[in-house]
Structure formats: C-alpha cells, structure tokens
Amino acid sequence: MRTFSRPGGVARAVVRVVRRVGLGVRWYVTTLLGDHDYVRYVEHLARVHPGAEPESVRDYWCSRHAVAEVQARCC
Amino acid sequence: MADIDVDGALIEPHIEAVAGLERTWTDRTSPPVGVIDRSPMTPRKRLLFAVIALVGAISWAMIAFVRGESVNAVWFVLAAVCTYVVAYRFYARLIEYKVVRPRAYRATPAETYDNGKDFMPTDRRVLFGHHFAAIAGAGPLVGPVLAAQMGYLPGTIWIIFGAVLAGAVQDYLVLTLSVRRGGRSLGQMAREELGRIGGAAALIGVYVIMIIVIGILGLVVVNALAKSPWGVFSITMTIPIALFMGVYLRMLRPGKVSEVSVIGLLLLLLAIISGGWVAGTAWGQDWFTLSPVTIAWCLIAYGFAASILPVWLLLAPRDYLSTFMKVGTIILLAVGILVVRPEIHAPAVTSFAIHGNGPVFAGSLFPFLFITIACGALSGFHSLIASGTTPKMLEKEGQARIIGYGGMLTESFVAVMALVTALVIDQNLYFVMNAPAALTGGTAETAATYVNTLGLAGAPITPADISQAAANVGEVSIIARTGGAPTLAVGMSKVLSGVFGGSSLAAFWYHFAIMFEALFILTTVDAGTRVARFMLSDTIGNLGGVAKRFRDPSWRVGAWFCSAIVVGCWGAIMLMGVTDPLGGINTLFPLFGIANQLLAAIALTVVFAVLVKRGLLRWAWVAGAPLVWDLVITMTASYQKVFSSNAKIGYWAQHQAFLDAKASGAQTFGSAATPQAMDAVIRNTFIQGTLSIVFAALVLVVVGAAVAVCVRSVRVGGSPTSEDPELPSHLFAPSGLAATKAERDVQAEWDVRGREHVSAGGR
Fold first, then answer.
1. From the CB of residue B236, how many other CB atoms can be counted at a distance below 10 Å?
2. d(CA B394, CA B183)
C-alpha cells in the first residue's frame, strides 16, 4: 500500500514487474535453447569427478552432438 | 507423525506424514527429496473448479446446441480450456495415484546417468517447452483443417475428448514406462515386455509408419509450395540461414545458442519479406516457380543431405529456428483468435459426414473423422518422443504428469485453434481449395461451377471471388491447393491481419503461415529421416555376421546406404502422391492417419501389457479403453480401405475398376485422362492397398503377442516387468509448472544447504 501512495512509487512498481517478467522470459528462452548447458556441465563434472579437467566449450558441443541422438519430431 | 512402510522397495526411504504433508527422505542429513500435500481441497478451490466446470459446460452447450447463423470462436477456446483444466486436475491425477504411482525417492534416468549431455535433469518448465516442440508439428494443424469438411462439432469433440481420454493418457503412460526403464525406446520396451515376435512386429511397424508419415507430410509441403515462387524462395533461404547458424555456433561463438537463434530469426523474417519482392520480379517468377515434381525431388535431396551431414551443421540450427517459430506463432495465433474473436460460419455437421461422399477425403464420420484427426487427439508418433529424449531429461517422476499429459493437452489446444482458423474462411472457398483438381478443374470458372453444385449455405461463389481471394494473399491461384496447409494459412492470414496490419499485410501473414508450416514439416522430415536411418542400420547390424559393421554410425558407406533406402522409401510415397491422377491427399491422407493411429495402438498395447503384468487389473482400463477404441476405428478404417466395394473408399475396388477399364480397351477412365495415368492409378492403389494390409497385420501381431503375455501373467498372478532396479534420488524439484507452498518451503531448505555447501569450501 505504502508503495502506491506516490505516483513515483507506482512507476517503480511497474518497472519492477516488467523487469521481473523480462528476466523470466530471458531465463526461459536461454535455458530452453541451451545457453547454460556448458556451465552446468562444468559444475556437474566438478561435483561428480572433482579434479577432472572439463572439455572446452567447443569440444563440449562437438561431443554433445556426437553423443545425443537426434530427437524425432512429430507430425 | 507416522512412518509409512513402502512395500517392495529396494531402497528404504523415510516417509513422514504430518498434518496432510507427506515428506520423503533418502538421506536424513539432507532436506527431503519429495513433498506432497495430501490435505483435502479447500472450499475456495472447490468453488473455483465448480466455476470452471460450469463455464466449460455452458461453452459446450453454446457449441453443440445453439443453432444459428454462426458461433463465436471464443466458445471453442473456453470449452477446450475448461475441459483440459478439469481433466488435468481430476482424471490425470487419478491416473497418477492409481496407475503411475510416482516415487520421489526414486532417481530418474536423468539423475542416475547425468553426463551434462544427453542425460541431464532439466527444469520442468524448460522440459515442457522441449517436449511440446517435439510433439507439436504440422499434424495438429492440417488434420483438423481436412476434417472441417464434416462440420465443426464432431472434430471439436474428438480433438478435446480424444486428447483427454486417449492421447494425453498414451503420452503420459509411455513417458512413465520409459522413465522407469532408463529412457529406453518404444521398440525396445515392446521387445522386453511382449517377447521376440511382438517386439519385431512393433519395430517393423514403427519403421514403416515413420516412412509413411514423412512421405505424406512431404506431400503436404509440396502442395503448399507448388506454383508459389514466394513460398519456394522463403523456404529455400532457410537452408543457407541454418548452415550459417551452424558454422557460427561451431567456429565463431560456440555455445551462444540464443544469440544465433535471434540472428537466424531476423534473417528468417527477412527471407519472408524479400520473398514478396522476389516473386514480384520476372526472374524471381522464372527461377522459383517450380512444378510439384521438381519440389518433391528437391525435398528428397534435402532429406538425404540432412541424414548424412553432421547434426551441428544443418539439423541442430534448423531445430532452434523451428522451436522459436513454433512457440512464437502458436502464441500469436491464440492472441489473434482471442482479440479478433471471429465468427464461424459453418454447419455443425455436414451431409458429407453422414453420406461419406466428401471431396476432401472419402468415407463417413465413423471411422474416418477419427483417422483424419490423429495428432491433436491421439497420435502414436508421440510415443516415440515420450520414449526418446524426454525421459532422459526428467528430473523427478512426479513431473511426468505435467510433461506428458499437460504437453498433449497443449497440442490438443493447438488443434482446436487450427480447426477454428479453418472454419473462419468462407465455406465455398474452403472447398475450392481442398477439393482435388480432378473435381474443381484448373480454372476459377470450373472451380466456381463445381463448388456451387455442392449445395453449401450462403451465396454462391463467382470466379471473380476466387481470383480475388488468391490475389489478396499474393498467390497466382488457390484452386485445389489441397493438404490443409494453404487453407490454414488463409485462415491465419485473416485472423492475424485482423490484429496486425489489416488487409495490407494479408499476403505477408499468408506466407508467414506457409513458412511456419513448411518449417515444421521439414524438421519432421529431416529428423525423421535420420532417426529412421539409425533404426534401419541398428536392425541390419543386429543380423550379425558381416552386417555387424552397420552398427557403427560413423561408417560412411553404411550411413549413405541406409539414408538412401530411407529417403527412397518415403520419396517414392511422396512422388506417388504428387503425381496421383486422383489427387494425392484424398487418397493418401487416410493412410497417414491409419498409420499414426496404429502406432498409437502399438504404444497402448505395450502400456496395457505392463499394467496387467504389474497386477493392476482394476486400473488396466485406463490404457485398455483407449486401446479398444483405437483398434475399433483403425481396424474398421483398414477394413473399409481394403474391402469396401465403393471405389472412392476401397483401394482394391478402385484398383479393380481401373483394371477392368484397361481390359475393356478404354483410353481414359474417371479422372485419369491418359492410359499412363490409368496405369499410375493401378500401381498406386496396389501399393496403398498392400500397405493397408501390412499395417493392420503388424498391429494384430503385436496385439496377439500382448494378449498371450497378459493371459499368462493373469494365470500366475502377475509377472515381473523390465523395470530397472530402484536407485535413491538425491535431488528435489517441484512437480507442477508452478511450485506449491509446501514445495517452495522444501526448495528453500535446499537453497540454504546449497549456500552452506559453497561457503564450506565446495565449489
């Protein structure tokens, strides 16, 4: 309630909501497409095999395409 | 506080139930790995669901009983959404409690085999996007468009209730089966659960059905692009764009996937806009006006290239583009329908539904409506995806309901929107576009004359109307543009230009829609060819001896050989459709639907057998009822396609009619104008009739094997299934798209622990 008592407060609240939604959409799209997969892989390796040398970004994507089967796409 | 004993568990989870809140631990030093709120529904929630159910019932009444000039599209959207919400909350949850019984203490394959590459626990909301992008394609868009010839009511009922009671159940249960089996494929599960013969029949069935599906979807693209320089240019441009994206990701900026996708998307929009300019020039028309046969050959070359080229170069970047386009356009269409709220001017049920003499495809409502609308209501192809990549990415067993069941409900909603979009266009125009060229003739005059004999409601259509409709969307002709895609594009153009840009952008939106459908289908074609190639080389490799070498996917000779066979198979079917004197879509689309629904029968049979083996006899109907219904429609349709004496429906009757005509020395017969065309019909109907028999026989073998397995199992009171042994889970994640209060509390405990772990010197 306090926030909405001044016009500036309303504007700030709107900016905050827009910012949150924007960040959410960005998180979703980048995660969906796989931007964070490499970082995740490095963290995972450090957790499961501490001390193991992770592949470089380039090698990670090469071997990932080699390992993963192609997903069938439905009609 | 009460400890609950979990019977038959190999691991010993600790489960506590306090005040309706059931929490599960696998390790008492960590926060719980699962929490379920088992307290009864609050009165407010009950009221909410009562209101949703009431709104749904009113909407259904508006669609089904209110007869007037027109129905507003909003009622369709409301009826669909309310039905989905109620089904998801009550029916899917019943299946979850009684049949699936997810266990929070069990690790999923994604957790067990996590390698950060193909096995990787993925946020449920992200996985929902992946799964939806993989199951939704052109099928839910074109099937309902073709089925619109029977009126709006039967299609709407089947799309919504078919999804709720059959399609979503299949997707959900196949996913849960695969998750408990290390993410194994449907073919492998069939072999393990049904034995060698059932498994082999299922594997061959899956392969043949994939070939048919790719061939006929290819035919839809060819029909959408033929005689359209704009469309051909835009689609051609997607290939260099994808190659550029692939090289960019590999060489320039590895891992920057969303960056390159945004660049690719902008280039794609440029390709659509510039298509209009190119089609306006003399050289553009010269180069990009291709005959259907040429386009078909280009598609064959493309499929072969996609199958042998490295995935990163062509397939992966196209997939990024297509995911973007898919999610974006579907949201756009939903917004368009809600903003424009178009009126639907079509009868609830047409006479074609009753008499089975419709020009778009022959046969009466039962069984052919249920065959024509496969994707969107029940689609066997989904079982390949639910037992493919998705189970290897699922974090927790409890999330399978939102991914499997919820994903299919979303696709069903897409199908409802496609049906609505096809129905907002003028009925006369609908038949001008969808009746085969053999009936409409090639010109506006003959098409108008033909359509006016159909006895549709409203004013008769004039040749000028037809030419004007084509000019409005920037096409030379829209007569006999069968396959559903152009019709949907006209509808989408009408809806979207109502929101953005008005009539000046109608041509842009038409080509945008064509592009989006073609992109979907090409993604199915390229990925499907590659998947089928791997299936084929695996099968050949398993023969042993010298053939063993085929197991090595990097062996170039094997890859080329298998790719050529796969492409040759579906290419032949596509070319058969493209050159078919009888029209192509009207003869082949039923085969596509039958194939897809028979694959669903295989999937549901495997699920049913597993339920019986597990001793869940009381609940086996959950898979058994849709299985019986599916078998009834597919077997009736197959029977009619093989044995019907009506040449319009029965492949063999048509075959015989043309053979007789040839024997009598006729030079032309029916819509075949030359002796060569007559020979083509004789050959095509032979192939189509043979395929119908092969499909049905394969499925009957699978069902027979399953019945034998079930009878044996019931006699001995249940038998072991091929479920993997339990391994304890060490991670927590909410089940639904939005986390509940209890789930947020547990998540907070894990977050605190994660921070302590970091400060204690962990990473």
1. 18
2. 10
Structure token digits, residue B175: 């996913």
User: B-chain residues within 8 Å CB-CB of A38?
Assistant: 255
Q: Let me know: does B442 contact B189? Beta carbons within 8 Å.
A: no
Q: What is this model's ipTM? A: 0.89
Nearest-angstrom CA–CA distance, B563 and B36:
48
Cβ-proximal residues to B205 (8 Å cutoff; 6+ apart), any chain: B598, B599, B602, B695, B698, B699, B702
Q: Is B195 helix (H, G, I), strand (E, B) or coil?
A: helix
> From CA B164, how far away is CA B158, in angstroms rounded?
10
Cα nearest neighbour of B757 on chain A: A47
pTM of the model: 0.94
Amino acid A1: pLDDT:
47
Hey, what are B306's tokens? Answer: 């996609």
- Pick from A61, A68, A75: CB nearest B137: A75
> How far off is chain A from B62, nearest CA to CA, in Å?
31
Q: Which among B117, B129, B520 has CB closest to A63?
A: B117
Mean pLDDT, consecutive 10-residue segments, chain B of 763 residues? 43 89 93 93 96 97 81 94 98 97 96 92 94 91 93 96 98 98 94 94 90 93 90 94 95 92 94 92 93 96 93 90 85 91 90 92 94 94 93 97 97 95 92 93 93 88 94 91 93 92 89 88 91 90 87 87 96 95 88 93 97 96 98 97 94 95 92 92 95 94 96 93 93 95 95 80 44
Angle between helices B651-663 and B621-643 (to 10 degrees): 10
Q: What b/e readout covers B287-310, taking b as 16+ CB neighbours within 10 angstroms?
A: ebbbebeebbbbbbebbbbbbbee
Residues B107-154: tens digit of each pLDDT: 999 999 999 888 999 999 999 999 999 999 888 999 999 999 999 999
User: Which residue, among B474, B481, B129, has the nearest Cα to B331 in the 3D structure?
Assistant: B129
Label residue B190 left, alpha or beta by phi (over 0 means left) and psi (-120 to 50 means alpha).
Answer: alpha
CA pair distance B547, B559, nearest whole angstrom: 13
Whole-number Å distance between alpha carbons of B547 and B305: 24
